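Sequence, please.
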């Protein structure tokens, strides 16, 4: 599964397989629909069960990716969280390995927000870095 976010308000989810001859086959599997502005970032769980996306609309959304009827139905949006600062948006979002936490980054203020999978903001790190945060990674879930 491959997710592609762009300046549009949707995310394309593709499936990459091989046919009987061994040739690579790429087809659209589903779409994440619901943001009202450009999608800036996407994180898909390693098991493919969940995804989070962030948008210039000032939200991040959690998606239920393990759906039946792939190619016919689109994933359900489980949760929408709005940026705590009016007029701001999340540049980066990442799911923790067990999908129980979401980290969201706003580069304008260099602020990192830690959320539960239910959308509750549990911690804020102000001025988390002296420069723009370009990537976030989780090693293990120990919170």
């Amino acid at each position: 599964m491959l997710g592609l976010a762009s300046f549009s308000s949707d995310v394309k989810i593709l499936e990459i397989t091989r046919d009987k001859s061994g040739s690579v086959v790429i087809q659209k599997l589903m779409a994440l629909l619901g943001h009202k502005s450009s999608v800036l970032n996407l994180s898909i769980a390693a098991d493919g069960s969940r995804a989070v996306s962030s948008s210039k609309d000032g939200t991040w959304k959690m998606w239920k990716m393990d759906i039946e009827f792939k190619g016919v139905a689109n994933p359900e949006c489980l949760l929408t969280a709005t940026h705590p600062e009016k007029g701001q948006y999340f540049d980066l979002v990442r799911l923790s390995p067990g999908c129980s936490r979401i980290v969201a980054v706003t580069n304008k203020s260099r602020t990192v927000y830690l959320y539960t999978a239910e959308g509750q903001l549990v911690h804020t790190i102000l001025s988390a870095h002296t420069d723009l945060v370009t990537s976030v990674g989780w090693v293990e879930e120990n919170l």
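The two ends are 28 Å apart (CA to CA).
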